[in-house]
Amino acid sequence: MKLISVNCGLPREVDWHGITVTTSIYKDPVSGRIPLRTLNLDGDRQSDLSVHGGKDKAAYCYPIEHYEYWKAELPCHPLPMGAFGENFTIEGLRENEVNVGDRFSIGSAEIVVTQPRLPCYKLGIRFGSGDMVKRFLDSGRTGFYVAVTREGQVGAGDEIIPLSHNPESVSVPAITRLYVAKRYGREEVQQIQRALTVEALPGSWKHYLEERLRRSGA
Hints:
The protein is of the alpha+beta class. The protein contains six helices and twelve strands.
């Protein structure tokens, strides 16, 4: 498992359907070693802190393996590293292989997986397509966010080393499915009950899942 590219970007203003929108979804690869801190990478910043950023979304990881799929789906779009707004383009670590709460080291930093990415309309801005958010979510190729448990330096080429894996947790795709599911059956209820015990899952997610569970009458 490897860190292929470190990508950073600062807020910029773009026009979207006649409205000026501030977004940080445009990321470019950076060279050298970059400090990864509790809230973000040096040289990177989120625009709307009400939905992006914070310690539970310090960095966004996206598998390079998904790029081949998107090259076929988006033949008219160039796809440089960081095209999906990710900070870390990674290799050998896909969503279905990752549980919330799994811990890894990259360079001299340590991270913990917290949640899948739920795309917002700014992904549509990035690709000039209003249906990109739905296509992205439907593909199951969401990538995942991490929190920083130890600050350190990271750089392209760093090995991603597993530190711990919680088999009693739930996978990143399972969390996504719980979010989009219209109804909950026995399996979904069991997954929610397990997810609620995972320390790394953010409180906002736990509140959402508890509310969905309550409304389902389970």
